[in-house]
Amino acid sequence: xxxxxxxxxxxxxxxxxxxxxxxxxxxEGLPIRLVIALVVGVAALALMLNMLGxxxxxxDTEVTAEIDDTDQVIEAGQKQDVTIDVIDENxxxxxxxxxxxxxxxxxxxxxxxxxTGSSSNSADVTIDPDLRADQDKGTLEIDVVPPSDSxxxxxQPNAEIVVVDR
Length: 166
Hints:
Blueprint: H1 30-55, E1 61-67, E2 73-75, E3 80-88, E4 98-103, E5 112-115, E6 122-127, E7 137-145, E8 152-153, E9 160-164
Transmembrane segments: 30-49
Pfam family, one: DUF7382
Keywords: Membrane, Transmembrane, Transmembrane helix
């Protein structure tokens, strides 16, 4: 027979029949356990978010704009067509892209854009560049908007068109 252990207080009930609400020892380790659970949870969440952040870039292919050799340097004050090709990082043609030419250090009346079409990766963009009175040369920036239903992206800087005053 097991002897009945009496409580340290004045109660004459055995320790085994003591109720949970009367036990003050349960909260002694609770704060540190909550801190550990919180730290482990935050670390696991950070790891999962890092893994999810890299999923979107799998398979994306960079596109770039190439300027025809004769159109890399153009004259200010004259309306002209510039031939621009869109290719991917492997040199393959990219169709259905939009080419946008905007002012850099040279000036334009507004952005010029042209669609390459579904049968070509090339477009002739009509631009009318100008320079400020104190400028001898400037640049125009080229952006490519890849087809929306593809895995193409344009995050790297493209070639620039140089505008000179002759």
